[in-house]
Specification:
Length: 314
Amino acid sequence: MPAITNHEHGISTVDTVYDRPQQTSAHIIVEAGRAAIIDTGTSPGVPRILAALAAKGVPPERVDYVVLTHIHLDHAGGAGLLISQLPNAVLTVHPRGARHMADPSRLVAATTAIYGEETMRRIYGEILPVARGRIVETPHEASVRLAGRELVFLDAPGHARHHVVVLDTRSGHIFAGDTFGLSYRETDRDGMQFVVPTTSPVQWEPDAHHASVDMILARRPGAIYVTHYGQVRDGARLGADLHRLIDAHRELALACRDTGPDRAARLATGVRDIVLGEAARQRWPLPREATLALFGVDIDLNAQGLAAWLDSLG
Ligand SMILES: [Zn+2]
């Protein structure tokens, strides 16, 4: 039985697992017996989504959409395998991402460059292409209807240029992918949730990221779903924290701009200190070592993303 968290409005979070439980999720919206799946996790996680659909009594032929917030492989790596199991579903993706889902070879190469061969094999498994005819591109303000329930796609660059967030008009909730940061349930304290932005390579842009966070907040969503991990509420408070932490990342990067061969190490130490500083500020209920273990991969990725941003400045 997969780990499913049921929310209001027919929305649920499915744990697709990655390195550990409660790290990476897919979301399912069920409306009048039909379903949309938002983000897919990796190929090895796909059976968890299919089991969750079965547990909800939704047969594979009643899934209409597989929606990608963006094509980073922890969100989209399982899309080809998943859609091969869903005879009537189409895949929605930002126009910049579509060709990489039809031919994932460049995406696989880029991801291997970031994570290495061993992790690629162990975590991502096989990445299947999606037939071009089953891909629907979703430019800004495009929408689809799930049994009449309108899902609107909004361009949300910042974490990645090909990122969309999805507004569910029925609930007013927003599926934010990575745009609204990482919010691991292990850091929750006294019913409060916390966030850390993800600046992973290679398209992080702080100004665009601020603007996309504001775009989400402007809709005043009652809940926001983040891939890492699940539903968050209290968007205004979390959004203010995101803005502050995006600025902290930008300032760190700029301070490391001319540090030569030490740059990567300084960025990694700096991101680690931002995370530990946030843990102290918000009194996360975790010892230091557990905090570093929880964010270990993210600290490395954020540091790599800051380096890529600095390189893009020339
Ligand atoms: Zn991402």
